[in-house]
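Sequence of DUF4190 domain-containing protein (Pedobacter vanadiisoli).
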Amino acid sequence: MIRNNASQKIDTSTRNYIYTGYLTAIFGGVLGLIIGWDIMKKKKTLHTGEKVFFYSLMDRQHGARILILACICFILLLTLTIIALDS
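Predicted 3D structure, token representation.
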């Protein structure tokens, strides 16, 4: 029973981490890039020495989307800033 509660807490914190990633990506922040990359690439080492991904496949797909969205929004924000400065 304790394992169920622990795994539910991990899912809730992961979900909040993903939401934070999307929000920061939309606003063009570098933090969105970092969170997306972290969710996609983070690994942990098992006691056997084997390295496995820290997040599930679905979460890693969210990480990829966050990274792409953050890149697009960052470039868009940078472009709009340069245009505004030239005017």
